[in-house]
């Protein structure tokens, strides 16, 4: 009874963080049956060490609940056992994790401290052990177990087909959901690779291939510099705080070149590394785990391989250790000729978070690009910025602007400060490229890798500041909106494109500008300069499975399509008037399935190529 009550209280505390509706009655009905099953097993098999077993189970469930709370606050999803595969990454991102841990969450451990103190008093401990040593009636235990088992099945079985993972966890109960995820081995049967054609993908996307594409080959033979901007959301473009321009460099790029404001992230568990994967392959992220773990051993059709087949030298630049998120395998899978990581940029050299600052990144990258440009071939360089990484708390010497007092010490304020610094570093990089004579012969592409301000990590003060910025409620629609800019002297002119786009579209758009055919390379994106009228962008992981963006709105499913939420891209709150259809919902799911099927059936690499400093 005592431990059941303790577990119910902890379950309720966890529900208040994870779910919008968290009545104690609901928690009691969803969580108590599985708790009783666990305790019945202890009562059935343990006698001498029964108290110890209760304490161990209490600790394990408490650690699980605390992990779920912290993970949800950081990533916005309820994790399952799959995230254990990334446990070795925790040390590298501990600052980001600590930034979302509120002291009140530690109260979940309070009973353990109290019990530990009490049990250190020998007389009480002996009394508790003696009381627990009494054998409970096996008939009673069996009856409680049976009733609880039926209650668990009643909570689980009706909801096994719910597509929204968070909704499914709420319907089943947290512990039931975790148990179901562990035991569920029902995987989709892959579509045969031979049946996955570009025309079948276009049919699902609702588009047709352009017979005479505009701007085809307009940047033919130019160097390609692809800059991935860490945590850069689109609302930063033209944002001013009390008259202060936050990102003047990106603003100038957006207004002087091709700018796509209706552009959306499509990353998964791998965050930044997933953005690298999606942009370079035009495939979707896997359903569970980062692409660097699931797909990196494959021989991936990619931007690097396509460009290399047309005479390009290829390299990728990232100031973090190449082992982080298994990037060494990823870069080999993508076919880059070389990678440059922390070993090249310098251990301890002006470090921020995971490696040298963007100032170091851009300085040493520009010098290396000049060396590559001196060779006989054009080059493709993928440059990964990192200084604007969560938790955004820049050291004072890196801060380039003075925030208004109301932004000081807030998550939103720190984010704006860090993006202002990242923009400053980008400006230095562009000027350096110009002085080295690299801009004239290069096509530059800029995009945000993923959201910086998760809706689930904000406190009330942050929400108020974002309402001031947006003039309304900040929701997932704004969270996943990142910019995409194409800039090239003699190629681009000032133009704002309103067609919908996502990270999966960058490769086919670039291929068109370079005059390279994608007909023999399966891809799930579309050329944004030609296929302008319609787009369908499936989402997964950071939005529930079944989520998608179409021309008019962001759709988030409930148990299925019918009880989903609709957010118009033009702004405003969720609306009942749906601009999304169940057909689009099904087609988005099928696109994800086709991508999973195709990539999983690609051959593994026969050999591995070492990166070079």
Describe this structure in words.
Pathway: Cell wall biogenesis; lipoteichoic acid biosynthesis. It is found in: Cell membrane. The active site is at 272. Keywords: Cell membrane, Manganese, Membrane, Metal-binding, Transmembrane, Transmembrane helix. It is built from 22 helices and 18 strands. The protein has helices spanning 2-18, 24-45, 50-75, 94-98, 110-119, 122-133, 138-156, 165-172, 174-183, 198-205, 248-256, 272-281, 291-294, 303-308, 327-334, 342-345, 358-373, 411-435, 460-470, 476-479, 506-514, 582-600, and strands at residues 223-229, 240-241, 244-245, 258-260, 263-264, 313-318, 338-340, 351-352, 355-356, 379-384, 442-448, 484-487, 495-496, 501-502, 537-538, 548-549, 553-556, 565-568. Strand 17 (553-556) and strand 18 (565-568) form a beta hairpin. Helix 1 (2-18) packs across helix 2, helix 1 runs parallel beside helix 3 (50-75) and helix 2 packs across helix 7. The longest helix has 26 residues, at 50-75. The model is unreliable at 608-613 (pLDDT under 50).
